[in-house]
Design goal:
The protein is of the alpha/beta class. It contains 11 helices and 8 strands. The longest helix has 18 residues. The N and C termini lie far apart (54 Å). The structure holds erythose-4-phosphate.
Length: 218
């Protein structure tokens, strides 16, 4: 399973990339706006930090405009994956861009039916939003399970990217549910490292080592 960072913040991306386990980046208009730079500049800077799929989202809502915007985003760097929303226009644009060989991540997917449309349009990635479904009292992870099963049954090549992950358990559960990719904010990935027994065990090992090998003769 691939790990993507769901951020456009360069400091977080540099730190995550230094761990050597980050396979890509997802951004959205909210995340780009937080950083205050035009999307073209921010995406180029991100591509210099992480060598992997970098999702950049269109902000047009009409299919033809999305296609034009998508082509421009794709030209920024060979790693750019164009993100289109799961609307009628978004699916039309996805189909067109995919036929041109431009990779598309279809975002804002909230149902298995929508995920089928993304696969039919030739999407490279579909992004079901787990946390936002949990927020309204549904079980977001069920969506990941349904989509991975449907795609498997029919041999769709579209990768399932579990998005809107808010907790370490979301990451684990999406791996168990068979998603190809998990994207999460920096703080969620950072928390995957933590276990009190690791800290306690390391403390003990270092103390025992010090007692024998670092005792200063009086
Ligand atoms: C995915 O590509 C989205 O950017 C993201 O996962 C949305 O997460 P949120 O629901 O926490 O905003």
């Amino acid at each position: 399973m691939k790990f993507f960072l769901d951020t456009a913040n360069l400091e977080e991306l540099k730190k995550g990339a230094s761990w050597g386990i980050v396979d890509g980046v997802t951004t959205n208009p909210t995340l780009i706006a937080k950083e205050g730079r035009p999307i073209e500049d921010q995406i180029r800077l991100i591509c210099d930090i992480v060598d992997g799929d970098i999702s950049a989202e269109v902000v047009s809502t009409e299919a033809g405009q999305m296609v034009r915007e998508g082509r421009e985003l794709a030209r920024l760097h060979r790693n750019v994956v164009v993100k289109c929303p799961l609307t009628r226009d978004g699916i039309t644009a996805t189909s067109k861009l995919s036929r041109e060989g431009i990779r598309v991540n279809v975002t804002l997917c909230f149902s298995p039916a929508q995920a089928l449309l993304a696969a039919k349009a030739g999407a490279y990635i579909v992004s079901p939003f787990v946390g936002r479904l949990d927020d309204i009292g549904w079980t977001g992870m069920e969506l990941i399970r349904s989509i991975t099963q449907m795609y498997k049954n029919h041999g769709f090549q579209t990768q399932v990217l579990a998005a809107s992950l808010r907790t370490p358990n979301h990451v684990i559960d999406s791996a168990l549910a068979g998603s190809h990719i998990a994207t999460a904010p920096f703080k969620v990935f950072d928390s995957l490292f933590s276990h009190p027994l690791t800290d306690k065990g390391l403390d003990q090992f270092l103390q025992d080592h010090k007692k024998v090998f670092e005792t200063v003769a009086v």
